[in-house]
């Protein structure tokens, strides 16, 4: 399989013989995208919704709005804009101001013949060009928005032609073409590389080349796109962004690249289509039973795009349309495990259980320090969550959401953590269970191992976290729960979380293993500001308190055996332990279902009943 490494499943007597680890190789049945006509033109790509909060009347008053902040008058009403305006001290607000996308309604009206709108939006654009001469690299907002602004300039140029009913750009707008060339030069000299940023730049450069008939710019754009695709999306469908949300964005972005190339008369070649096909299947496997993407990396709460004719369409429509993916669990070499109990074959689609686990290379781009972290959706709701994405402002919220402390992992708060590579040491798949073992060094002088066993019928997750250091440390296995849950600590071994009025509870069991449980074996935190802990961001504008359950240890070593059990209200959940030689056996009862998990001396977890 492409990019695969050998994994040796561990099989013990009494186990169902596991299948080999299912690598994330895409199926060959996905539907290809529909080619577009080669017109030799570049279509205005729109304004990405940034214009939604700025109706035409606000454009005409030089007033900008973005996000939840109040609208702000950035100009004098004549198109003379104060481009250094930053009233809310938010990098994204400032960047979108410089993108000019907020002029969308004005440009649309201008293209339909509204002369006042045409005069005003062109005055604003010309004002930006005059006030931000080449090179604008010293202004991060102007720099970061270059490719977006390039597209707006192209859209404005098309609006001039359409609104004035002319085929050639009038001489009074010659500055617009020069600005397009300046933007192309800037993107040539400051390429963002094989990331979504660089891809957006290459598409915009293609647009300039196609619009102005510059074969050299078209050639450079095609070369960069050809170079970037093999890094941006690997053969298994994983992107280099380390974010599920950006994976969805990349699927859309490379679809736009294909359309732009075809329309402009360039051959996109087969690789983009192949990688997008693999990415569609990757996204399908990532999609939860609720039909949402897990908030892994910089990801807001969102539903995936139901790409027609693909397995992603099947996942996004909860099995109503599309092609059912050929597998229910897969390991991707880029550092993702996605699994589920099924695709709605024997129970309703939304009643399946789905999970994700992270490992792999150290954090970069839009990734978090989330290695070994688990997200879990079961019984129609989120059980274990990622805290989400607070945006790009450099503050305590971004620092926390990217840290180990905001994820479902064993942390070592007494040591200084660093982003590190985490290895998937072994994995094994069986019909009713999946097993994974991960190892890394989360802080200097500290070794960490996590063994994970995911069960089907009953649906639950077992983890064994082990830490080892030459000095005393504080070890905390964290379980982040959805907002609205009230957690009751019933004993040193049991915490129960439930949302008032909900029909499901989550049992968090800490089973004694190799160590005596301390008095503070289980603690709960929620909504803490200093240090930050116990929050959830559904999007970059809102946050909610959300409980985090901590299983605590102290000393040079730690062994924390956890069981996370979602169950219907009224269902009996219990456990007992016994030994068989050097092995610990954990007998679990979930309602009428009983199962036994074996813990081997080396930490390997297996289901034996």
TrEMBL record:
It comes from the Bacteria. Residues 1-32 are annotated as: Disordered. It is found in: Periplasm. Residues 364-548 form the Heparinase II/III-like C-terminal domain. GO terms for cellular component: periplasmic space. Its main location: periplasm. Gene3D superfamilies: 2.70.98.70, Chondroitin AC/alginate lyase. Keywords: Lyase, Periplasm, Signal. GO terms for molecular function: lyase activity. PANTHER family: HEPARIN-SULFATE LYASE. This is Heparinase II/III-like C-terminal domain-containing protein. It comes from Kribbella pittospori.
């Amino acid at each position: 399989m492409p990019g695969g490494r050998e994994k040796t499943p561990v099989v013990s007597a009494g186990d169902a013989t596991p299948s080999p680890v299912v690598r994330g190789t895409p199926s060959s049945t996905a539907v290809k995208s529909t080619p577009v006509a080669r017109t030799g033109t570049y279509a205005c790509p729109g304004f990405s919704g940034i214009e939604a909060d700025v109706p035409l009347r606000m454009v005409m008053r030089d007033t900008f709005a973005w996000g939840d902040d109040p609208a702000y008058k950035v100009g004098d009403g004549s198109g003379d804009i104060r481009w250094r305006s930053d009233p809310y001290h938010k990098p994204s607000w400032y960047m979108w101001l410089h993108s000019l996308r907020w002029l969308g309604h004005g440009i649309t009206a201008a293209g339909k013949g509204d002369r006042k709108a045409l005069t005003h939006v062109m005055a604003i654009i010309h004002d930006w060009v005059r006030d931000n001469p080449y090179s604008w690299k010293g202004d991060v907002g102007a720099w970061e928005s270059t490719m977006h602004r390039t597209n707006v300039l192209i859209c404005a140029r098309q609006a001039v032609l359409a609104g004035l009913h002319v085929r050639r750009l009038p001489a009074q707008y010659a500055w617009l073409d020069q600005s397009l060339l300046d933007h192309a030069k800037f993107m040539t000299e400051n390429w963002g590389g094989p990331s979504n940023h660089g891809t957006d730049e290459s598409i915009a450069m293609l647009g300039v080349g196609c619009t102005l008939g510059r074969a050299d710019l078209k050639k450079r754009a095609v070369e960069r796109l050809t170079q970037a695709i093999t890094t941006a999306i690997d053969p298994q469908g994983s992107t280099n962004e380390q974010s599920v949300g950006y994976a969805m964005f990349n699927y859309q972005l490379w679809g736009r690249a294909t359309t732009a190339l075809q329309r402009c008369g360039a051959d996109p070649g087969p690789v983009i289509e192949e990688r997008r096909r693999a990415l569609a299947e990757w996204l399908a496997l990532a999609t939860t039973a609720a039909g949402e993407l897990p908030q892994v990396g910089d990801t807001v709460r969102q539903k995936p795009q139901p790409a027609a004719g693909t397995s992603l369409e099947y996942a996004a429509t909860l099995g109503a349309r599309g092609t059912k993916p050929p597998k229910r669990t897969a390991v991707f070499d880029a550092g993702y495990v996605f699994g589920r109990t099924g695709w709605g074959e024997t129970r309703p689609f939304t009643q399946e259980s789905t999970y994700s686990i992270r490992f792999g290379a150290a954090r970069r781009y839009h990734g978090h320090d989330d290695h070994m972290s688990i997200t879990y959706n079961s019984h129609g709701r989120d059980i274990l969550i990622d805290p989400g994405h607070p945006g790009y402002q450099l503050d305590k919220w971004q620092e926390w959401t990217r840290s180990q402390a905001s994820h479902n992992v064993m942390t070592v708060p007494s040591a200084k953590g660093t982003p590190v590579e985490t290895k998937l040491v072994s994995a094994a798949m069986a019909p009713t269970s999946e097993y994974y073992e991960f190892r890394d060094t989360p802080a200097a002088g500290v070794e960490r191992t996590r063994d994970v066993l995911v069960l089907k019928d009953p649906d639950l997750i077992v983890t064994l976290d082990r830490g080892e250091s030459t000095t005393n440390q504080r070890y905390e296995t964290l379980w982040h729960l959805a907002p609205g849950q009230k957690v009751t600590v019933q004993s040193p071994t049991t915490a129960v979380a439930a949302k008032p009025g909900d029909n499901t509870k989550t049992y968090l069991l800490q089973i004694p293993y190799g160590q005596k449980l301390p008095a503070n074996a289980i603690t709960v935190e929620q909504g803490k500001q200093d240090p930050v802990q116990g929050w959830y961001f559904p999007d970059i504008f809102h946050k909610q308190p959300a409980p985090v359950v901590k299983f605590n240890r102290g000393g040079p070593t730690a062994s924390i055996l956890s069981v996370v059990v979602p169950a219907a209200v009224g269902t009996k959940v219990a456990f007992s332990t016994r030994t068989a030689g050097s092995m610990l056996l954990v007998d679990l009862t979930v309602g009428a279902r009983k199962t036994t998990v074996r813990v081997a001396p080396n930490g390997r977890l297996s289901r034996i009943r």
